[in-house]
Amino acid sequence: MPTEPESTPLLNVSRLNVARGTKRLLRDLTWSIQPGEHWVVMGPNGCGKTTLLRSLTGFIAPSSGDITLLGAVYGETDWREVRQSVGLVSSSLQPHIPGGEIALETVISGRYDQLDFWGESTAADERAALALLRKLHVGAIARREWAYLSQGERQRVLIARALAARPRLLILDEPCAGLDPVARAEFLAAMNGLTDDVHGPAVLLVTHHVEEITTGFTHAMLMAKGQSVAAGPLRETLNNTNLSTAFAAPLRIRRTAKGWHLTSVSG
Ligand SMILES: Nc1ncnc2c1ncn2[C@@H]1O[C@H](COP(=O)(O)OP(=O)(O)OP(=O)(O)O)[C@@H](O)[C@H]1O
């Protein structure tokens, strides 16, 4: 993969279009992420968030437009190589983790970019994996099997797994889905640790809930009907007008000491 200067955008998407049959899943989407930024992507069901993530990670081919990720240009570079520097945490990974695998092994498998890893791990691998689990406040379950982990623990093990590969971009696709309030609060505390780490990866969070936008996030993109409705610094972008446009309903957003709150304005 090419090396790039510090100031190069981590991601540059220009006029990205994805069509399947007659349906346009993404329309002329333009977006960039600079080093040091942590982004939230929001939008109604079916607006194209997953399609965008799948395009960025090379699992869907764009119909037109350009993607430059970590200095590599889509179509010119082997995207499997680019993917090694992108951590993806998505519920779609969960069925692929063997039930009998202990958390430590799941994390180590991320370092080798393999699911169900059967290779020889070293003592150094184990120490590094344990440090990651501790960082995410789940060190105590290091030797517990996947089948017995709670949803909240699983999500954090998957983040540790993604971090084991030392990604430059970490994509969290609705990581709080299915978590109870306590597990969610614990998860959000761990996510705060990630965005606070100046040596850590850029974080891209896809969520439906503004309450999950922790203080370290700097930017937001709102999507609707395959397009970017608004994108930019978080506090400017998350306003009543942009959110109401994206969700096609009157919404009011507030920010308090406890975080963001979104309410529907009836009548
Ligand atoms: N291969 C495909 N062929 C046709 N339509 C598709 C295909 N893949 C996705 N779609 C449609 O494209 C739209 C965008 O889907 P996508 O999964 O990207 O939305 P999303 O924003 O992630 O939604 P959600 O918030 O519900 O997860 C949806 O209407 C979906 O049904």
From TrEMBL:
Annotated ABC transporter domain residues: 8-250
A UniProt-annotated Pfam family: ABC_tran
Gene Ontology molecular functions: ATP binding; ATP hydrolysis activity
UniProt cross-references to InterPro entries, sorted A to Z: AAA+_ATPase, ABC_transporter-like_ATP-bd, ABC_transporter-like_CS, ABC_transpr_CbiO/EcfA_su, P-loop_NTPase
Keywords, comma-separated and alphabetical: ATP-binding, Nucleotide-binding, Transport
Signal sequence region: none
Family annotation (SMART domains): AAA
GO cellular component: membrane
CDD domains from the UniProt entry: ABC_cobalt_CbiO_domain1
Protein name stated in the entry: ATP-binding cassette domain-containing protein
